Amino acid sequence: MKAERANVMLSALKLARGIEAGELTPRAALEMCAEAIAAREKDVRAFTVLDLDAARRAAEKKNLSGLPLRGLPVAFKDIYDTADFPTQYGSPIYAGNRPRADATAVVMVRHAGGVGIGKTVTTEFASMVPPATRNPHNLGHTPGGSSSGSCAAIAAGMVPVAFGTQTAGSVIRPAAFCGVAGFKPSYRLIPLVGVKDVSWHLDTAGVFAADIVDVAFAAGAVTGRDLRVDGKTPAAPHIALTRTHLWNEASPAMRNAVETAARAAEAAGAKVSDLTLPPMLEQAYAAQFVIQDYETARSLAFEYDRHRDMIDPRLCEALESGLKISIDDYDAARGVSSRGRRVLADAMANYDVILTPSAPGAAPEGFATTGNPMFNRLWTLMGAPCVNVPGMSDGELPLGIQIVGRFGRDRAALEAALFVERAIAGKTDV
């Protein structure tokens, strides 16, 4: 079925070009966001705090039009410290918390000419506990997590750029569920200073926007790196169609979507080959659970020791399990992850990118879960750049397909994602 965009999303690149050409002002771009927020926020519940009046004042500054983001509105997941907004980490423990300083990424956005408009909903401490945010495509379905509010705000047209984080699948999975472009760069490409730790060997900052050119533009503007992929036809990549050991856990619609995307890319000139990953990477997949659970329990040790009664019982149970993991098991898992990165680099030596599912299927109905990150865990552990490519659907709900690049080759991953996005644009039946 053809993917229908349930909302009019704001293209960061088009808005920036309009400002550059003098056809639009930063204030006018902000008012587009304000209009969408007024219309949708009461149902979608993407934000924890907004300050549109302060954003209006910031948008009037004269120097913004000469900076890379040109005064575009930006939102931040509520685990990024912000001096101008409360930062509450999705927890009542930190209600009203006001950091003294901005996270480094927030400063980078401001230096690039972005205007912060507010903080978006996160699950509790970026965990598995579902939040109040709803999927803009169908309010009865989850938007995913833990970057729930950021992806929902993009999908609802409330903001052109939003930041999230990924520890297991918290950028790519919600981007897939909400039908937006999500970019999880190579590990630590975007600094995480001033962002609440979940798992220090896994946490990765990510960016959401409407389409691939938008997310590449935004990431390039903030980091100062050559990540933009607009302005020329992307080169035809060599794609490894990778089903992984979890392939049969994907829904029939998702499996069909990945294979449809592969055929469309091949018809557009890409070389597509099947790739079976070495069995050792199944061990790496299992190691991700150990590393995340061990580190999360230590990252939240203060909150667990001092405020256990204010933590959701589901998260408490997970922390208790993580505390039982021995240092020997943790160190062994870290060793497996290191070997896994070398094995993956060798396996990908003859390919530009991997094509694989972004999630098991479309967004689950109800709010008992934010969905399963099974198709993201390995790639996060490997530190590889990942991109959710929007444009396909299962009924009224989006389906996302995932491009996984080689570590450090983020622009190549984005370019391949654009190639696939364009290839499926005229072939979106699944």
What's the short version?
The chain is an alpha/beta fold and 430 residues long. The protein has helices spanning 12-20, 26-44, 52-59, 104-111, 148-155, 172-178, 212-223, 252-267, 280-299, 301-306, 313-323, 327-347, 377-382, 410-424; strands spanning 47-50, 73-77, 115-120, 161-166, 181-184, 204-209, 238-241, 271-274, 353-357, 386-394, 397-405.
Helix content: 25-40%
Cα-based radius of gyration, to the nearest Å = 20 Å
What is the CA–CA distance across the termini?
A: 6 Å
Write the CATH architecture name of the domain at 12-235: Alpha-Beta Complex
CATH top level of the domain at 12-235 is: Alpha Beta
**CATH topology term of the domain at 12-235:** Amidase signature (AS) enzymes
* Structural class by helix and strand composition: alpha/beta
Shape: globular
Side by side, the strands of the main sheet go: 1-3-2-4-6-5-10-11-9-7-8
* Largest β-sheet summary: 11 strands, mixed
Helix and strand succession?
HHEHEHEHEHEEHEHEHHHHEHEEH
Structure commentary:
The protein is built from 14 helices and eleven strands. The protein is an alpha/beta fold and 430 residues long. It has helices at 12-20, 26-44, 52-59, 104-111, 148-155, 172-178, 212-223, 252-267, 280-299, 301-306, 313-323, 327-347, 377-382, 410-424, and strands spanning 47-50, 73-77, 115-120, 161-166, 181-184, 204-209, 238-241, 271-274, 353-357, 386-394, 397-405. Strand 10 and strand 11 form a beta hairpin. It has an eleven-stranded mixed β-sheet, with helices on both faces. Residues 1-6 have low confidence and may be disordered. The longest helix is centred in the last third of the chain and has 21 residues, at 327-347. It has a domain at 12-235: Amidase signature (AS) domain (Amidase signature (AS) enzymes, Alpha-Beta Complex), CATH 3.90.1300. The protein starts with 11 loop residues before the first helix and ends in a 6-residue tail after the last helix.
